[in-house]
């Protein structure tokens, strides 16, 4: 059986992100239900049609598009998928009818100078597989649909028909599980848009590494393997990766990024708290809870534990350098904040007190990279060196 805590913790983090959205800019962008998707079997876990929110572009941004994929963990077995099925993470029937945008999706020029007037879309996440599942059969007992890949394609087709087919500039982005999805679908997204368009991808807190845990194993590989098998994700993963290694390894960005053709920007913390909790010290390999205090608050780590944390950061940087960081067209912004998802809130994107690395804020770094104003390779010094980090309530 899978450890559904891997998924539920991400859900709580996304709830926190949603609260930050409303605090920052408010807004009431209505939900769009893609009813036509049902005919092609592109449905949420419960069989309901997929959905997204769209705020139309204006002025100079009318032909520019940013498609942001919502995160929220994964389900790796029937039990954990059933737990999601009747929630907003598994059914469009349970989703909020309106939502606010902020950060990379914000509409205020001062808070989002490069993308504020683009067509800005958030794809709702209701499949539990980072939009990769595609299983035709439906168990009559559970009535679970594993159709994440079809959802992605149906929503993208809907947006293409609404004008994205004429895009001049476009970004596929996402946070957490959505940030992983942005990497897995990046080249596919590029192929659907005009060759004359500038198209790039941005992954926020989605660069999950094939990292060694405190027991010396790779529990995260087991977890990702269960997701890939349950959701039938193999045929949806980049073939340039699956042709040379085990499919579950192609759920790890460090291996996919090596063969990507489309430019990618990675926003991540070197101490991403989801990864520390679930890759470095997952509960499955820490039955006595020796790591509980440390992984929830780095100030409570013992000296040996903090060394392990710093070693995990080294693992992360190595996975980055051999993957996304190995291509000059890619950009990276790796700070030392104890954080997870930093593009969705104005507080961490482009506010007066937003985190900086090399005197550069995240929003400025992404804009400079997208428009080729500068090459961006920002890697912070080790924790606790950065005084600009925004405090995040991570006890969720």
UniProtKB/TrEMBL annotation:
Signal peptide: 1-26
Pfam families: PAE (PF03283)
GO biological process: cell wall organization
EC number annotated for this UniProt entry: 3.1.1.-
Subcellular location: Secreted, Cell wall
Keywords, sorted A to Z: Cell wall, Cell wall biogenesis/degradation, Hydrolase, Secreted, Signal
InterPro entries attached to this UniProt entry: PAE/NOTUM (IPR004963)
Keyword check for Signal: yes
Subcellular location, principal: secreted
One term of GO molecular function: hydrolase activity
Enzyme class, UniProt record, top EC level: hydrolase
Functional summary from the UniProt entry: Hydrolyzes acetyl esters in homogalacturonan regions of pectin. In type I primary cell wall, galacturonic acid residues of pectin can be acetylated at the O-2 and O-3 positions. Decreasing the degree of acetylation of pectin gels in vitro alters their physical properties.
PANTHER family in the record: NOTUM-RELATED, PECTIN ACETYLESTERASE 11
Family: Belongs to the pectinacetylesterase family.
UniProt name for this protein: Pectin acetylesterase
Naturally occurring in which organism (per UniProt): Manihot esculenta (Cassava)
